[in-house]
Specification:
Elements (H helix, E strand, L loop, with lengths): L1 H17 L15 H29 L8 E4 L7 E5 L9 H28 L2 E4 L13 H7 L3 E7 L3 H11 L6 E4 L2 H16 L7 H10 L3 H18 L4 H12 L15 H17 L5 E4 L1
Antiparallel strand pairs: 1-2, 3-5, 4-6
Helix pairs in contact: 1-2, 2-3, 2-6, 3-5, 3-6, 3-7, 3-10, 6-10, 7-8, 8-9
């Protein structure tokens, strides 16, 4: 039921909000190609989000850990129509090896599924003129600036690029001309959303995906790394983008820096787990966005 509702809310939200079918006057005007674009975005976004959670699910079952299938979370007419998906892990994780496998499988699976969508999307995108935008550090999106001057204009919405998006853009579109941005295919927008969610889960705090990895590597010392990460999130909120305040509150008040111990902590990490953690770190760097949205001047 949740999966079906999420399909509907993602499709309807992209159609009405992202394609501009819902006009300022309240009328609905469906432009040519809007239905196809909404269907393409829904297919790609749900595939990426589902792959992320199924990665956790499959590795949990492989290690004998009871886990639910993904619960998709619909969000009608807000954002992209969904808050993603989650699985419920019913058992304690038995070993540090299992913790690494289960924690890394989600972001790695979601990232790999996003890559072909990004490739196809950039191959069918083009450059268009873009309005001038503000600087990132202490620019109009920073909490420092918002307190002084108010919330900046975010219409039209301009999504910032991370390293993996810039890499695909360079391969398929070439160098970006000055004053231009990408008129993104819906697959690119879905890939952007997928890499954003991957990034959010790869902050090394508590029971986030990267928090599992740091606990497996460092044990109780991972709490200090989690606290330092919260300080970094606060710094991003103050100096780069006030939108980080939402994730800062979720991570600090809901997730926390604590992590439950595994059942058999004495079992050593397997040799390949270090490479898995390294690969996940590379994905985190490729997906990192200092400011997900850019203010229009």
């Amino acid at each position: 039921m949740l999966f079906g509702c999420t399909l509907v809310t993602v499709f309807a939200t992209f159609l009405l909000i992202q394609t501009g079918a819902w006009t300022d006057s309240g009328a609905i005007l469906i432009r040519p190609g809007a239905l196809r674009a909404s269907l393409e975005f829904t297919l790609a976004a749900v595939s990426i989000l589902g792959a992320h959670e199924l990665g956790h699910y499959v590795l949990a079952r492989r290690h004998g850990v009871s886990a639910s299938l993904p619960y998709f979370i619909p969000l009608p007419l807000l954002g992209f129509g969904t808050l993603g998906a989650v699985i419920r892990v019913r058992d304690r994780i038995p070993t540090r090896n299992a913790l690494v496998d289960i924690g890394a499988a989600g972001p790695l699976a979601g990232f790999l599924v996003a890559l072909p969508f990004l490739a196809w999307g950039y191959a069918h995108s083009q450059f268009v003129p873009t309005p001038p935008t503000g600087d990132t550090l202490l620019g109009p999106m920073s909490l420092w600036s918002v307190v002084q001057h108010g919330v900046p204009r975010l219409e039209p919405v301009i999504y910032a690029d991370n390293l993996v998006l810039r890499l695909f853009e360079r391969v398929f579109l070439g160098p970006r001309p000055v004053g231009m941005d990408v008129a993104a295919h819906p697959f690119v927008t879905a890939g952007w959303l997928g890499t954003l969610i991957t990034m959010l889960n790869l902050f090394p705090v508590g029971q986030l995906d990267a928090g599992h990895l740091t606990f497996a590597l460092f044990g109780e010392r991972a709490r200090m790394l989690g606290r330092l990460t919260l300080v970094g999130l606060a710094a991003l909120t103050l100096t780069v983008s006030f939108t980080w305040i939402a994730w800062l509150l979720v991570v600090s008040l809901v997730v926390g820096v604590r992590h439950p111990a595994v059942v058999r902590p004495e079992e050593p990490l397997g040799g390949l787990r270090g490479w898995v953690c390294a690969a996940t770190l590379v994905v985190a760097l490729l997906c990192f966005l200092p400011a997900p949205f850019v203010a229009v001047l």
